[in-house]
Amino acid sequence: MSRDSVAVSVRSAVPGDAPALARLRYTFRTELDASAESEASFLRRCEQWMAERLTRTAAWRCWVAAEGEVLVGTIWLQIVEKLPNPVGESECHGYVTSFYVIPSHRSAGLGSALLSACLLECKRRGTDAVFLWPTPRS
Predict the structure, then answer these.
(1) What is the pLDDT of residue 32?
(2) What pLDDT is recorded for position 1?
(3) Residue pair 81/53 in contact by the 8 Å Cβ criterion
């Protein structure tokens, strides 16, 4: 099947995405630096962490870019609580992390689509500020 015949969609991640998300996380981080633990160990640990966070609705959200059944990009959002505030200001921030699109799918607008989904959620929740630390390349 050619890449042109399968549309890429952006959707909310579900717990069943955890194995593919862990692999994307490993690929993303090891593109930037050497791994400090075995790939298998990291994937087990990360998959469990992600599956647990994707079943809760409070602090973490994740979106994926999927080409058919294959995940080709991801972005995570953590809602960080602020102290209670007596003025008309939101009581949460958004922390964006693990924003990654595989190299073969870059320049196709997927990064923008993932970021838009994330920022729409921030707007919906009324976050005060959104933080993202980009990699040197991005």
Answers:
(1) 85
(2) 35
(3) no
